[in-house]
Amino acid sequence: MKTCLLLLIVALHAGNSQAIDRCSVVSAIKNGGIIGIKGYTLGDYVCLAYRASRYDTSLNRSPTEYGIFQISSYWWCDDGRTVGRKNLCGLSCKNLLNSDIEDDVRCLKRIVKDPNGLKAW
């Protein structure tokens, strides 16, 4: 019985996953104009996406981290729940949970321009 329940939970989670392929990630990053900011490379950003989410755009790992880059709702997006949020990217965190990662990359660009850059992760 426990095995059946575990398999059901895994299947439901896998059904909600929206992983995109690496080439789509590379394309969005190239089109986003972020390569070279503070010396960061295409590889740095692709590695971040993989390590943060395994390219899963629907990932909401903790109550405050969203999307393919696991962007924090405290500083960067509005989830409607996080107390003291700043929303410096000016977008809803829900927008970071779909397969269109253009807005994720725009927000990433804003984050990278911040003094902490990729050290924010």
Q: Spans with pLDDT under 50 lasting ≥5 residues?
A: 1-15
Oligomerization status of the protein chains: single chain
**Spatial order of the strands in the main sheet?**
1-2
**Count of extended strands:** 2
Mean pLDDT: 89
Q: Which sequence of SSEs, written as H and E, runs from N to C?
A: HHHEEH
Name of the CATH first level: Mainly Alpha
Rg? 15 Å
CATH fold descriptor: Lysozyme
Q: How many structural units, i.e. domains?
A: 1
What is the overall silhouette?
globular
Relative helix content:
40-55%
Separation of the first and last Cα atoms:
40 Å
- Beta content comes to under 5%
* Tally of helical runs: 4
CATH architecture: Orthogonal Bundle
Helix/strand-derived class?
A: mainly alpha
Keywords: Disulfide bond, Signal
Pfam families: Lys
InterPro entries: Glyco_hydro_22, Glyco_hydro_22_CS, Glyco_hydro_22_lys, Lysozyme-like_dom_sf
Family: Belongs to the glycosyl hydrolase 22 family.
Structure in words:
Helix content is 40%, strand content 3%. By secondary structure, the chain is mostly helical. The protein has one domain (19-120): Lysozyme. Strands 1-2 form a two-stranded antiparallel sheet. Helix 2 (22-31) crosses helix 3. The chain starts with a helix and ends in an 8-residue tail after the last helix.
